[in-house]
Amino acid sequence: MNKLLKYREKLNLTQEELAEKSGVSTRTIQRIEKGIEPKGYTLKVLAEALGIDQKYLLNKPEVSTEIAISVIKLINLSSLPFVVLPLGSIIAPLLLMVIKKQFDPLAKNIISIQIVWFICSVIIFFFLVLFVKNSPIVLFLFFTIVINITIILINAFSLTKKQKLYISLNNSII
Questions:
Q1: Is the Cβ–Cβ distance between 173 and 116 less than 8 Å?
Q2: How far apart are the C-alpha atoms of 92 and 80, rounded to whole Å?
Q3: Cβ-Cβ contacts under 8 Å for 30 (sequence gap 6 or more)
Q4: Domain spans, the chain
Q5: Which site in 55, 113, 122, 123 is 20 to 30 Å from 64, CA atoms measured?
Q6: In which band, very low, low, confident or very high, does the pLDDT at 174 lie, cut at 50, 70 and 90?
Q7: What is the rounded CA–CA span in Å between residue 57 and residue 34?
């Protein structure tokens, strides 16, 4: 059922009554109820006339924010078991993102963080191997794992409390 139709019927309004209340033509309301998505001024006045937020009239699938955040937390935490495997902390959340069809900017940012972290770790590792005699490679590997786990856990807590990433990138790589 079309969202405009659903809300209009919930308020027991006819198309003509909604047209009068919103200032939008009856024909426009008919078009929207047949599948045309309202935009701009039309979206604004219809939402006001119905007493709802504009986003509820858009034809985007209704996904609970709680469900979306829980999937994003799962994507974030899926990196955890694989922090010791090269590329594991990237592949696991990427696969989960595709399987769950969660192409949210937060999910992409989580994977981008793991990609950047992996690239930086590899560069530093090779720098230590090539240029530092008697380099503490085992110690370096331990610290990279601990720091990556810390990033994942801090973001998990931030997603739970604020529904956003505490540690994030300005631009997503994927």
A1: yes
A2: 9
A3: 15
A4: 3-57, 65-162
A5: 113
A6: confident
A7: 13
DSSP codes, 26-71: HHHHHHHHTTPPP-HHHHHHHHHHHTS-GGGGS-S----HHHHHHH
Single-letter code of the amino acid located at 45: V
Which homologous superfamily is 3-57 in? lambda repressor-like DNA-binding domains (1.10.260.40)
Q: Which residue has the tokens 């963080």?
A: 113
Round to whole Å and give the CA distance between 154 and 16. Answer: 53
Listed in sequence order, the residues at least 6 apart from 147 whose beta carbon sits closer than 8 Å to its beta carbon are 117
| 89 touches 148 (CB < 8 A) | yes
Token pair of 80 as six digits: 């955890």
pLDDT for the residue numbered 4: 86
**Total residue length of the chain:** 174
Report how far residue 131's alpha carbon sits from residue 150's, in angstroms, rounded to the nearest whole number. 28
| pLDDT confidence of residue 65 | 58
Rounded distance between C-alpha atoms, residue 58 and residue 147, angstroms: 41
Q: What is the pLDDT at residue 47?
A: 87
Q: Enumerate long-range contacts of 162-171, CB under 8 Å, 24 or more apart.
A: 163/65, 163/69, 164/106, 165/106, 165/109, 165/110, 165/113, 167/113, 168/109, 168/113, 169/109, 169/112, 169/113, 169/116, 171/112
